[in-house]
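Justification of computing resources. Each target in the renewal requires a structure prediction run like the one illustrated here; the chain below, 309 residues long, is used simply to show the kind of job we budget for.
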Amino acid sequence: MLLADELRSLRERVEAIASFKERAFYKYLCRTPLDYPHGSELSEQEQVVLAAFCIGSPECKPLAQKIRGTKPIKGLHYSNNLIDLAAFASLSLDDETGNIKTYVKNHSTKDFFVLTGMFPDVLDYPPSPITEIDQIALKLVTGSLDLSDKPLMVSAIQTAEDLTDVYILNTAYLRLLDHQPATQYRRDAIAFAQQLSAIIRRIDMYVRLAVGGAAIYVFIKFYSFLSPIIVERWTQMEPRLYIVQLILASLLMVLLILVGVVPDRVKLIKGVLRFLGTLVLLMFGIKRRTAESSIARYLSQDTKQRELS
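Resulting structure tokens:
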């Protein structure tokens, strides 16, 4: 199995058993945050954590400040948990700098990597690695990860336990791609995707111009037919002149839309143009949806934006 497939399988397996808080933190790190779970029964601390990591969340800074003033109960405190500490620090880093430094002294290299990524100017030296995930995290911090570390990656995948591990492994995988030389097949596929994308854009442009030209023709014919009637029957037509002006203005607006001047105003027109372009592409044996899917896949590979999150 390819490394990317193993990582995707690992992520799906771990995410299926993860709590909402763990998934919210993971998605936040991947820059694809979840929506805040309005209507759910949450403790005050959960409200603060999810407010820090989810979109559409309520204001929770006053609540976070209130919780900061509480004493630990039997050793349980937000500052002893990576996700909770990261949430409180993201809301007010100045109040949590000391807690972050204390936390890292007693925890793993992978925790150091995550916290350093979120708060780059707080921590100085990582703790010594213990697990294989820690070793990868340290290599990411020092920039020493290279293609010779693939066996370490494969082994670490087998021991990964949570979404934080998945995040570190995904980051390492993307870093390895920087060292992976592009094969001739991959270069040819990317070049083909770029050319196919250019063909689709060109055909869409020709369709838009053709329909725009037809609109101009209809506009001229309509105007040449209507003008003599208006001149001949001016006194009778004067009350209807305003309606005629509206019709002409509407035709002009359609014309502008068809040639792409204001393409986002009328979605129906855009849909019609896309449909006509799709028919033209079929005449050349190109299925738009399949082609666009392939283009997106190959070009995303070229920029290393893999769908691992």
